[in-house]
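Re: your question from the hallway

Yes, I did run it. Sequences:
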Amino acid sequence: MVERQPPVAARGDTAESESALIDLARAGHTDARETLAQRYRQPAYLLAVQMLGNRDDAMDVTQDAMLRFFTTLDSFDSERRVQPWLFTIVRNQVRDLWRRRRRRPGDSAPDADSLTSQLVAPGPSPEADLRRQQLREEVWRAMDKLPAEKREIIVLRDFHDLAYNDIAQVLGIPIGTVMSRLHGARRQLRARLEEGGRHA
Amino acid sequence: MPDACGRTFDEAFLSGYLDQALVQGDEQRVRVHLEDCVSCRALLEDLASVRDATMSSTFDIPRDDEWSEAPRTGTSRLLRGLGWPLVTAWIVVVIGFGLWETWQDADNLFERLLLVGGLSGVSLLLISAFLDRRHAMQTDRYREVRK
Ligand SMILES: [Zn+2]
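Structure:
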């Protein structure tokens, strides 16, 4: 049931092999498509689940996003990197889903603790590890309560390790505003954590 | 909090510093200030520990075979969702019509009793299938594919 993933699944792949894969996939090579799907489905799913808090919805969004990714492959500039582009698609799909369900992007996740329940708990481990895991749970519980626009920027930077310019691309905002938005979001997350009693 | 601390840069630079996203001059300004300012240092440490927790988190992810077996698009799911009730309705109408016709033609009590028995049996089965179907769709829409 449970698989573990490195924090950033697509890191370490050279841009060269990525653009070669894109070219092959565009030319209709099924293997290249399958490789791309396997490589990027996981980060796409993680972003989706972090925004939606629900496994089934996240799987739906991921599959729709991958489908869209492949149908728009021709318009993709293979010099650019895949992940920010795919994340833009995922984000749009998430917003479409909210629109269909009449939720506003500013709303926080509908059920509290939905993200925390998706966390993988560590096995038997030293007390220090348990404390770290406890902090992780508190962080994601607090993240659940953040408005989506705050949550997404933190998740893109701190979980998916996107650079500021990639974040600007995904969110469609000027790169000069990324740092202040991110800081505001981190401040709010910290405030939520304090409300939750971390610093009590 | 650290507004009175005398820093000469926007507080957001602390995030930029944490992310190593500042240009050299700004990075230096922040570093020098941090050496003297306890409150900015505390804030930075807080942000760093929260970021570390986020970064090191691991989530449940679907297995590879769950992806290949799941319905491919929202449309196929929608069509399937529509398909089952339609099929059920069709069966109910066809069987109901057949039974009604037979009922009209039946000429003794025994044949009618036979009909009522069959009719109630079939309806119970249909209702149970429908309830199962509805339950499956509400709880786990991939269950039938998985087994
Ligand atoms: Zn200061």
